[in-house]
Amino acid sequence: MAGATIAVASDHAGFDLKEILKSDLQHAGYAVLDLGTNSTASVDYPDFGEAMGEAIAAGKAEKGVLVCGSGIGISIAANRNPEVRAVLAHDATSARLSREHNDANVVAFGQRLIGVEVAREALKIFLATPFEGGRHAARVAKLSGVSKS
Amino acid sequence: MAGATIAVASDHAGFDLKEILKSDLQHAGYAVLDLGTNSTASVDYPDFGEAMGEAIAAGKAEKGVLVCGSGIGISIAANRNPEVRAVLAHDATSARLSREHNDANVVAFGQRLIGVEVAREALKIFLATPFEGGRHAARVAKLSGVSKS
Fold first, then answer.
1. Angle at A91 between CA B94 and CA A11, to 5 degrees
2. ipTM over 0.90
3. In chain B, which among 87-146 make CB contacts under 8 A with chain A?
4. Cβ under 8 Å to B: A residues 14-43
5. Which of A109, A68, A65 has its CA nearest to residue A90?
6. For each of chain A's 149 residues, which pLDDT tens digit applies?
7. A58·B147 Cβ contact <8 A
8. Ramachandran quadrant class, B87 (left: phi over 0; alpha: psi -120 to 50; beta: rest)
């Protein structure tokens, strides 16, 4: 999938890890769409989760990477968009399963909770793992049609 | 918060852990609203994540607990509802932070990824930890207003 466009976004508390993962992506041959933030000055994570949702829904990127302090808030924000399937990954195993079973298109990390090398490996595996389809396909389709009461 | 109503829901792959956590909640004095599933027969996790969203949005439960195999799919489904702030918790630390910073009202676990005792402790801490408010409040408010393009 090298050559594909991967969007990256973070808040201030995820900025450092976002920059590391962005560099990894560029070295691996991906085109990177950086949606910010661009410093450690305080910003609101929902704005960056929302920007990721818009980029994915508009087809500007095939997959996305999100980082905030815990990964929690920014992944909730991104999942508001029905086109996003964002996994809050704590390790390579959850990153792999999110691709195999959920066809996840966004991976979120918590800079204060995950080790740098664990995050780097989880991202690599996230991008390398195909969706299994089969019995999982109908469930994934339902994720875009879940009603918002 | 004993006496409050906590909703629980899972798919077949999360049924066993859901039953354990339900029992813990009942012993701790909570009222439990069980949204299913009620066996290990195959079902679709999005249906149960959606049911949780509807229960939370309708005020039928103050907080919720979700379980599927990885916790990923069911937490994505629940977060489609703008009234839900669901954390995929891998440990007590992420459960605590989700309450302090994100005012999370739903905690999701992956039965195949988390140890039973880790999940039991994470749920206990989730329910015992108050939201910090302050600078976090405006960001949490944005999570209910994130646009769905």
1. 60
2. yes
3. 87-88, 90-91, 93-94, 97-98, 101-102, 104, 110, 113, 138-140, 142-143, 146
4. none
5. A109
6. 667 999 999 999 999 999 999 999 999 999 999 999 999 999 999 999 999 999 999 999 999 999 999 999 999 999 999 999 999 999 999 999 999 999 999 999 999 999 999 999 999 999 999 999 999 999 999 998 854 44
7. no
8. beta
